[in-house]
Structure formats: C-alpha cells, structure tokens
C-alpha cells in the first residue's frame, strides 16, 4: 500500500479537524444551533474550504461514511479464499461495530442523531446507499444478477445489525446470534 503524499495527508487532516470541530459543537450546543460558519471558525478554515470537503452539515456528522462503504465492499471482495461472504461480514462487523459501542461519546452521538430529524433522514439515505452498494458487490461476487433480491436482503440485514444491537446488554453475543441466523437459517 502506497503512503499518502503531503497533499493527501493535509486534506485528511483538514477533513478530520472539520468533522471533529463539528461534532464537538453539535454535542455542546445541538445540531440546529451550530452554523457552517461556526464549524469553519472552530477548525480555523474558511467556509469555502469546509464545502470542498463536505457537501453540508449532515455530512460532517457522518464523515466516515464513504470509507465505511468501501470497507464493507472490501470485506466481500477481499475475503480469504474459502471464506463465506457471511463469515467475512461477521468479521467486519465484529471488528468495526463493537469498538464503536464502547467509545466514550457513543451514547451522546447516538442521541444527537436520533434526536435530529435532518440527521435521521441523512442517515437513512446513507444507509440505503450502503445497502445498495453492498448488495451489488455480493451479487457480483456470487455471479448473481445485480438486482438479486437475496443479495440485497443479506446486505440490508447486515447493515441493520448496529440498530438491532444498540443498547443491548451483550452486543457481541447478539451480533454472533444474528450472523448464526444468517449463516444457518432459522431453527
């Protein structure tokens, strides 16, 4: 893997500074009480620079959306030989979702998103896009038609796991049970 150059590192640092500043302000004041200008000033950049990195306020909250989508697809396409798609997605969810549930700001972040209609709507659109992309990747990998309903159903089930396990006493156990169901079916 090639090391990113100075320009790419600077862009990534600016993007992170903007997302971090936005989240800090949103959690402190509430989403609707924070302007684009407030975020740009907190990150010490212009609003023009902010819009070069993010299309709007909602995208600042879901700043890792594109990376997550790419990693989901990579979990399918780059899995070990002989490993099932469901098992690869299980590993992905266990490695990425469970650490999020223990982050110190997890509860605040979840409350921010669920308590803000604009963020809920943006999250739903993002979720729908991720499900379509993952479903298409599963279909391509299995040789199924691009719109194969089983491939898209699997994608949607996997992407629903965070919502299904949110706030449960043992998320790891719940994730494992859900994937057992996906792997073996209802018993």
UniProtKB/TrEMBL annotation:
Keywords: DNA-binding, Transcription, Transcription regulation. Residues 12-72 form the HTH tetR-type domain. It holds the Pfam family TetR_N. It comes from the Bacteria. Residues 35-54 bind DNA. The keyword Zinc-finger does not apply. This is AcrR family transcriptional regulator. The lineage of its organism: Bacteria, Bacillati, Actinomycetota, Actinomycetes, Pseudonocardiales.
